[in-house]
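Quick review question:
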């Protein structure tokens, strides 16, 4: 039982770091640009498809993941230059309508190019093995790699935001855009860089998730919903909040799906527990979000208020 619990904790941590990669770009784009991007999940999907494409062309999984992230970054930059910057001074409703339309376009485009049949991304033999951990746990090497990459990316992101000149400008732009513009900072260039970096993080997450999920049209919608939950719980625009909330959501979702039915069976009949357990498990993160919004509407670790 101890081994099973620890294994599910690792699974929850792995889901959490993937959600962080997506939610970090999402919350960064909203915090700096005040732009709601519903098509962020489509960038995640493109990352998975690009990884499959580049792995077939290069034969290298690690090179394919890198190229997939960079490829989605280029797509994000083009998207920002051609469309997004025209919407900065429009209402959030316009943001939602346009980016929702892009979801439909992206799903149909990948279905035309790669087909509607799910694609299963392969792994090199070195990443397809199990590694022995304490308490008799045999855990997939690749899932540990995903956790490690997520932790490294989180550390690099915190360093960039807190200790570099571009990070200083990003933080300043998130709190007082007008003053930053008056001080001579090219706001348009800053917005383009932030959007491209957010797209890169989403593409990287998609490339890493490809071997764990089936790569198919629409695969970004479910993870986008969870990512928005992470952003709301952590605090709009907060990178620290996104990391904390992503780990919490990943653990609650994974542990709930693994153990809630057995927990309910101790108090309810087996039939009721088997029916209510999976349904309630899928609701846990949304119940948590509702509680956070009720008791702490600004989120767990909100950023400074925009002036």
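Suggested answer, residue by residue:
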């Amino acid at each position: 039982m101890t081994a099973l619990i620890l294994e599910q904790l690792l699974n929850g941590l792995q889901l959490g770091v993937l959600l962080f990669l997506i939610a970090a770009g999402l919350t960064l784009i909203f915090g700096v640009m005040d732009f709601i991007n519903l098509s962020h999940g489509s960038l995640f999907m493109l990352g998975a498809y690009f990884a499959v494409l580049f792995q077939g062309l290069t034969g290298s999984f690690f090179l394919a993941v890198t190229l997939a992230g960079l490829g989605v970054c280029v797509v994000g930059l083009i998207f920002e230059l051609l469309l997004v910057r025209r919407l900065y001074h429009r209402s959030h409703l316009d943001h939602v309508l346009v980016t929702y339309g892009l979801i439909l376009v992206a799903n149909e485009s990948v279905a035309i190019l790669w087909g509607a049949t799910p694609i299963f991304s392969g792994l090199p033999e070195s990443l397809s093995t199990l590694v022995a951990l304490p308490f008799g746990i045999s855990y997939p090497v690749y899932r540990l790699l995903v956790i490690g990459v997520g932790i490294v990316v989180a550390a690099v992101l915190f360093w960039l935001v807190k200790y570099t000149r571009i990070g200083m400008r990003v933080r300043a732009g998130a709190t007082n855009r007008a003053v930053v513009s008056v001080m001579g900072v090219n706001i348009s260039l800053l917005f383009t860089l932030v959007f491209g970096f957010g797209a890169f993080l989403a593409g990287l997450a998609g490339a890493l998730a490809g071997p764990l999920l089936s790569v198919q049209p629409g695969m970004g919608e479910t993870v986008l919903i969870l990512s928005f939950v992470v952003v709301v719980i952590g605090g709009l625009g907060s990178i620290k909040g996104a990391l904390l909330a992503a780990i919490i959501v990943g653990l609650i979702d994974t542990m709930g799906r693994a153990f809630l039915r057995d927990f309910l069976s101790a108090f309810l009949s087996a039939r009721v527990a088997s029916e209510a357990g999976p349904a309630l498990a899928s609701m846990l993160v949304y119940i948590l979000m509702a509680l956070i919004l009720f008791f702490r509407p600004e989120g767990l670790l909100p950023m400074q208020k925009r002036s």
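Why it works: The CA atoms of residues 150 and 156 lie 10 Å apart. The chain has a mean pLDDT of 89.
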